Predict the structure.
Amino acid sequence: MLGAFFTTLAYDSKYGQEMLEQAFLPTLRTLFQAPVTSPLVEVDQGSVVCLMLHLTRPGNKKVWK
């Protein structure tokens, strides 16, 4: 569900990719530093990285006029 939201944000918003780029490292930091009692430890960090890299790839930018 979040993957669909972030894909829409990245491609259908003028500044979506830039917003995701700015959130990339803070998101990873939050996942890596999550305490063992947090539900975030169940998130596949590799999948998050792959999704974020895909969504912020320069060749995927939508051209806004």
In short: Helices lie at 2-12, 16-32, 45-56.
